[in-house]
Fold each of these.
Amino acid sequence: MVKRFDWYKGEENKEKKQQPQNPTKLKGNIQAGQVLVILSGRFRGKRVVFLKQLHSGYILVTGPYKVNGVPLLRLPQKHTLTTSKVIDVNGVNTGDISDAYFKKEDKVKGSKEEQFFQDGKKKKAEVSQAKKDTQKAVDASILAAIKGKTEAKYLRDVFTLHKGQKAHELVF
Amino acid sequence: MAITRYVEPGRVALVNYGKNVHKLGVIVDILDENRVLLDGPTTGVAREVYPLKRLYLTGLKVSILRGARTKTLRKALENNDICEKWEKTSKAKKQAIKMKRASLNDYDRFVVSNLKRRRAFELRRKAK
């Protein structure tokens, strides 16, 4: 029997995306529910709850949105500061949130003339209802766990250095 | 105001810099105007030469002879309950507070500032 060669692999045999050779190792043994401080970007200073590590190596965090206005966010761990506070996130299900959730939606295409006339009134980027629902679902159990407690105020508070505080001497 | 805390054998001193910071030691001998031989057998301070600049002289004193050996010093310290006397002083209490504050983590620091704000709010409300 002559071995059959697959010179041209068909659509069905397309190889699955490779696992990253060296998946990003998270520093400091952070666990789900750990409070992190975001250090750069739009939400710098905000304290957020760590949920999980995504396939791309980035970490998934949430405000929760109702508490401090931070939605489900994807960021490199390097842009965060780990605190030793852990919040109970037992009821949270982030199984279906992956890097695909953060993919940018395709821009509306139109002729150049149409875009020129539309530029006068810029449309505000709207968040899809699906994303709002996912946000609510993920945040629900976290909000229930911290309701009425100091933890809720803590997450609302923004981290800053005060007079006399030295970052290298602070314990987190 | 006259000086009362002399640099003398038996003077209990607090180390305020270096690897033995916040620990008590006893001056055992004097080298020159800047350095002393310090020993703290009950507090884990090895018998070593310390510059006076790194020490804070306390009001406590043990009666030992100049150059007393570590074993003799240990007995003298234990007989006089120096560690307990030290804990009662205000300097020791203030030091404990300082160390506690330095060890607070991010959440603890928030709890403290939150309590301070609430207290200030209540005081202002009562003052009206």
Amino acid sequence: MAAGVAAWLPFARAAAIGWMPVANCPMPLAPADKNKRQDELIILNVSGRRFQTWRTTLERYPDTLLGSTEKEFFFNEDTKEYFFDRDPEVFRCVLNFYRTGKLHYPRYECISAYDDELAFYGILPEIIGDCCYEEYKDRKRENAERLMDDNDSENNQESMPSLSFRQTMWRAFENPHTSTLALVFYYVTGFFIAVSVITNVVETVPCGTVPGSKELPCGERYSVAFFCLDTACVMIFTVEYLLRLFAPPSRYRFIRSVMSIIDVVAIMPYYIGLVMTDNEDVSGAFVTLRVFRVFRIFKFSRHSQGLRILGYTLKSCASELGFLLFSLTMAIIIFATVMFYAEKGSSASKFTSIPASFWYTIVTMTTLGYGDMVPKTIAGKIFGSICSLSGVLVIALPVPVIVSNFSRIYHQNQRADKRRAQKKARLARIRVAKTGSSNAYLHSKRNGLLNEALELTGTPEDEHMGKTTSLIESQHHHLLHCLEKTTNHEFIDEQMFEQNCMESSMQNYPSTRSPSLSSHPGLTTTCCSRRSKKTTHLPNSNLPATRLRSMQELSTIHIQGSEQPSLTTSRSSLNLKADDGLRPNCKTSQITTAIISIPTPPALTPEGESRPPPASPGPNTNIPSIASNVVKVSAL
Amino acid sequence: MGAVMGTFSSLQTKQRRPSKDIAWWYYQYQRDKIEDELEMTIVCHRPEGLEQLEAQTNFTKRELQVLYRGFKNECPSGVVNEETFKQIYAQFFPHGDASTYAHYLFNAFDTTQTGSVKFEDFVTALSILLRGTVHEKLRWTFNLYDINKDGYINKEEMIDIVKAIYDMMGKYTYPVLKEDTPRQHVDVFFQKMDKNKDGIVTLDEFLESCQEDDNIMRSLQLFQNVM
């Protein structure tokens, strides 16, 4: 029942009085209207835009958000209105649906945004009115295609390790860019198709005379060479076909597909020719079979997307083509008849019969005009001119339809390719953003402890550094920090991790010394991984700044350690170091707890290995020597 | 505030004539012809004032407002023609065919026999049906049954009405509808109503018989609180 008509229910019920006198038995009781309240205005505040409507309007559709008690969740007691933090533009359409019973789809709106809004308000998109339904469905289909494209290319990029050999082969055939072997195969087959086609063509070219006989086509002169070429091509095609036959998931479907038929037709003539002897009777048929060799050129359609689009266009325009053919046939018959009878009178006319006139009509209508048949009588000439004029019209009419179809499909393909290309750039941007945020975390980690240290030391000038990070960021970082504490592992950036891996493998330490450290040292190491990002350059090295600094800090502290065995009192010295431009990277309190001698050079080696070995071996060698009595500062 | 008869004239279309193409001209000419014919039938009607209607009927202002909103929503032009009336009524009875009964109802609503029901007619009839006295209701029902409005109900009229009511039931009923069920029903009705057995029921006979029947009296009060 339409919503607006619900307002007429009182009338329909009142009109039922007309049945009362006719009825023989008593009527059932009417349902009582329990909460019969006056219709009131509801205010719906959608992102600041206020919509007002009657409560009964909304209650027309009780299975939606606005029509049910679900909207009470959005009721704002203070302002006595329902507040929705959604798009007011789309809400306009939603509210109109309640008012008029028809849901419209605004063309300027994005389809997924619209779908989201409808889902939020609990309205099924199927009730979109006829006026807008087609547009909605079209947009939805395009969107689905886009998603499918994305998914497809994603799937293609994923490495699916558990593919069987057969499946890999099928994938290689379908998409030559999946592996180099597939690409090689693709190009090789393409080359051989070209060779085969050129061979077929050149075979028939007259090739100079052999003395004593007439001019021969090349095919007969160098028959052995051509035969060998042909054999080679056919062998390649056969192998390719068999491989393609082996690979696909559904062989039956593959055999029925057009490309496979073309493949078969391309190689069949050769085998039939092998089987048949050089008998005179069948050589005629044999020659006919050779014509089929030209079908090899269709094998190029696997290599060319444009050819495929053309074929697809022709397939989808089948009705227009059919109409073209039909109308042409009609016109040909009409004009041929007319011309025949018009030219019947003239002597020595070439228009000997109506089928003979067909040739004239076709040549004239397609504006070819060979001139081998011309009308001689005046009537014939008049009708001939009418024929050529109408020919232009009849052919020109269905052609634009085919052209527009081709253009649409072609552009669709272009869009798909463009999307794929842009996808790479898009993914790269996403990756950069991700690494940016993780770097931000690492950065703030270093700054964070730094700031805490500074708070203790009371250096004012760097306090402001902490305030530049927003509350949300700091909360997020705190969360990541808690995760680190929980797992006793730390976040590091990619390069350092790779370096650590490389260097740990190079140092050949026992496998128990994993770069991620066993628990006890881990505890001590995780707390002191802060690193400052100040770009101070150390004189004796040209390492990348961060690692260099870390090295330097470590070396400094170690040196400190060697000078002062206990670092608990090194707070001031750390401050001194701070004056030097290097910031301490550990909280002092944490440093105290970290004074544990750890005979784990691998823990240090991430530090020491965070630069190419030949660069500065000095600090590296220093560290292991003083490892035993020096606090291990950091794992990074 | 009297009723304003506004006409949707074809003046607007006459102004939009940018080109003089032959085909376009021909098409426009045909369209204008049709629109000229429709000119007389498309009317935009505004009802009398709220106060007047309130005085004339038994509804309060609020109720009139609600009624008008529903009315205007379905019929933006302000009048209901029979087609729309039938469509609206058919929505309530999807099982069967409500068009015949809607036709009779429409005639009952359209007191001035103009072929269209204005809001005033609509509200007046509803006022009688929902808020009127028993007498008024019965008189309205008699008017409904009297198809040719001659003041008497004869058997054929009654059979038509009852058949129309049975049509609304549709095909799938239990027990199955037979051909002469309406006729039998009418016979029973006439036995009750036709006091002097002359084959027609007059208004007085109708009023008297209905007031004697408790069932009918009770059912007339059924829709008291519809609004």
